[in-house]
Amino acid sequence: MKKMITFAAAFGLMASMATAAYADEDRPAAETEATAAPVTGTSTTIVEPTKLFDEPLIQQGSLAKENNEPIVISAITPFCESPNGKIMNFLSPQVVFSTGNHVSDVNGDGEWIEIYTWLGKAWVHVPAVV
User: Fold this and answer.
1) What is the largest CA-CA distance in the chain?
2) Which of 20, 53, 66, 112 reaches 20 to 30 Å from 100, CA-CA?
C-alpha cells in the first residue's frame, strides 16, 4: 500500500512539473492567435428520456383482494423459482403478499405459496402448523 501511495505521489509531482514547464515555454505567435480566436454560434442538446415500460406497472384494481393474502415472514427465508426449485435469493423478516397460487408440498409438511418479490414472482415454503 505504501509503494502505491509513493508511486502516485511521484507520478503526480512529475505531471505537475511537466505542466509548469509547458506553461513557461514561449509559443509562436501563430499558435497564440489560433487559440485566441473567438468562437461564434450556438449549440443545443435535447435529451428525451427513454421509457422502458408504460406507467404504472400495476393498475388500480389489477390485484384481486382474495389473491393478496399477507404472509408474515419472521426469519430469513429463501424463495425459489418454482416449488422445490432453485433458490433465487433470501427474504428478511417482513410481510409479503401471495399471488393466490398454492401447491401442497410433496412431503406433506406444508405448502408452497407464490409471492410477489422485487425479482418478480417466486415461491416460498410455508411449513404446516403443528
Assistant:
1) 93
2) 53
Residue 94 has pLDDT above 60, yes or no: yes
Report the residue count for the chain: 130
CB distance 109 to 125 below 8 Å: no
Give 23-76 pLDDT, tens digit per residue: 555 555 555 555 667 778 787 887 777 776 666 555 555 555 555 778 888 899
Q: Which residues pair with 122 in a beta bridge?
A: 115
Question: What is the Cα–Cα distance from 18 to 11, expressed in whole angstroms?
Answer: 11
Helix (H) / strand (E) containing 103: strand 94-104
Q: Under a CB-based contact definition with an 8 Å cutoff, are residues 95 and 73 in contact?
A: yes
Q: For residue 70, give Cα distances in angstroms to 14, 94, 100.
A: 64, 10, 10
Which residues are registered as beta bridge partners of 89?
79
Mean pLDDT of 73-102: 90
Q: How wide is the angle at C-alpha 88 spanned by C-alphas 73 and 110, nearest 5°? A: 45
